What we know:
The complex is a heterotrimer of chains A (68), B (219) and C (247). Chain B has helices spanning 2-15, 17-38, 42-63, 66-74, 77-83, 88-117, 122-149, 156-183, 189-218. By secondary structure, chain B is mainly alpha-helical. The longest helix of chain B is centred in the middle third of the chain and has 30 residues, at 88-117. The radius of gyration of chain B is 18 Å and the shape is elongated. By secondary structure, chain C is mainly alpha-helical. Chain C has one domain. Chains in contact: A-C, B-C. The interface between A and C is large, with 39 and 46 residues.
Amino acid sequence: MDWSNWSEFLAMGGYGIYVWGSYLVTFACVIGEILLIFKRRRTLVKRYGQIFDANGEDTSYQDDKTAV
Amino acid sequence: MFFWIVQRDLLLAMRRRSDVLTTLFFFVIVVSLFPLSVGPEMNMLRMMAPGVVWVAALLASMLSLGRLFSNDYLDGTLEQMLLSSQSLSILVLGKALAHWLVTGVPLVLMAPVLGIQYDLPVDALFVLTTSLLLGTPVLSLIGAIGAALTLGLRGGGVLVSLLVLPLYIPVLIFGAGSVEADMAGLDYDAHLSLLGAFLLVSIVFAPWAAASSLRVSME
Amino acid sequence: MAINWYKYASPASFYSLAGRMIPFFAILAFGLLVAGLYIGFFVAPTDFQQGEAYRIIFIHVPAAWMSMFLYVVMALWAGIGLAFNTRLSSMMATAIAPTGAMFTFVALWTGSLWGKPMWGTWWVWDARLTSELILLFLYIGFMSLQAAIDDPRRADKAGAIIALVGVINIPIIYFSVQWWNTLHQGASVSVTQAPTMASTMLTGMMVMVFAAWMYAIAVILKRVRVIILERERHTAWVSELNERGAL
């Protein structure tokens, strides 16, 4: 282990901006991508609920893990 | 059939001469803008000349791609051509050749004049013209694929540039590179041979790819 | 174990299969990510040349590899879809593109942030960085073309043609950029002039590569499920799923 405390870890030997700038943007991209897919799916499921006008009101929001 | 297509497209282009001249003037204006934007220093201009002329040629040849198939598509001729027993690839090759004769050749002829504006030495002018002569047909052939794919789409003109410009990069590198190599006193044969190779490969594959694209777009 | 692969070529059965596979890959991706970050930040030593800045490698290299690999996989699926007229393969290609573009962007971003402390500039026209930039253009071209076409079948086929043309061009582009780069020396330093890497560094990097791989699979499957739903809205199985509230 190279770091004795938090501030040393955040400083990254003076390269903090570059290292954390890379990691933060990468994770923002990854999380953003996942959120976009979930949003796309939610709007789709909601619209289908209206189109089919079946008994899929609240249940249609269920997580996809429950899909067959 | 091949020559018939070429002849017909040339005839149509001659009826609308202003279109041809627009492309050429676009080329001239873009090249002339650079000295105004970076300053008239001759040493710098001489260094920039190959790149500027080549980029302008790329843009000019791309500008007119929209017309490659769209007129025939709108008046229904293209549909007839697809139904005919003739090979569609040959037809596309003919149309690409006509496109090159109408837009590429004027650029090639104009390039030495523009090179003089940039104070290029005589042998560099020769290399520039030769590289354009080998490279611009490749632009028309690759462009035909993009034009066929975007046929009839809204915003097709901008879209075609997104599709086609990245594919033009090797031609740009070796086209401009040949002139730079010559000015640096290096051998430029390899560049021109590679441009020739690109030309041969694209003559073989591009019409075929563009023909498949046309079929997809016309379904 | 005999699996009937053809069964899964139909969107309906693939939809449920993908739904069952996603948690597996997602958990794997998360586990590998945590392990990789742990090795990267707490086990791998400081590089004697680059100091701590080299730790960007743990995301830069996986992102760059995935960006190129995904383009090839995308072209492959698109090509299969074009050749055999299988809808699912084309949907896979469409689902891969945004993730590929995302990795390309991350590779460029991290490359730039790595370049600043190492060479003093945010951007160098290095052969690898330039090729990566052109790859981003190719992804954008593919996605814009598909977005501009309303008819899904035409979008599939047109996308397939541009993806295949792109994949043929990638080696040509790469070698011309390389040549161009060697002609204009002085402008560049090689990006991954890999410092002799300690084995823990290499381990960390490989773990992160697998994490990126698993993440890509999970997220692409997730996206392809949405695309399937969008395209198959008029089919019986979608409305049946909807009635059961199991969309």
